[in-house]
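U., I forgot to send this yesterday:
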Amino acid sequence: MPLRRGLAFVTAIAAWAALALQLTLLITQAVDDGGSILAAVWRFFGFFTIIMNLMAAVVATALVLDPGGRFAGARSRLVTAAAIVFGGLVYSVLLRAIWQPTGWQAVADHALHDVTPVLFFLTWLVWDHGGLKWRDALWAVVPPLAYCGYAFARGAADGWYAYWFLNPEALNLTQLTASIVLLTAAFLIIAVTLVSIDRLLGGRRGVARAA
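Result:
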């Protein structure tokens, strides 16, 4: 197995394992508190962290099993890399200081926010480059905007919001709008940076092949 597919394999295993551990912990906690498994699963899918790790798991798996397929394409890798890097940075900047898990929850926390983002970014770096265009960066803002709509719909239904900076019950309209704009802008900046790296690496590898 080539190095890059081996790295994708490790990334896929790490992502799926982290997701499985977090789901198990949520279900265990819900059952211990007298709740239901269905409620735990519903809460599980409320976090952007979970969604971005699912994206990473699916794309990394595709890179191993079907590297020529749609899910392993350059744009799909870009959107996923932007999401996973974004998620890791936002967690470190806004959430890590107010969330101090212990035990297995700490393991899941570090796996989802540290291990998978680093592994997927490394996988993205070693894969093929040079096929992205600047406009492809715009696709990277789809996940955060879609998640915002999804989070608001969920919150309206059950009154629970995963993140304080996207909670309309805690923020006024101006603050909420500012949160969405800033997060989207940060996402776009990350995506543009990744496209720049892609074009740089693609150019260098092209020169190396020509030589």
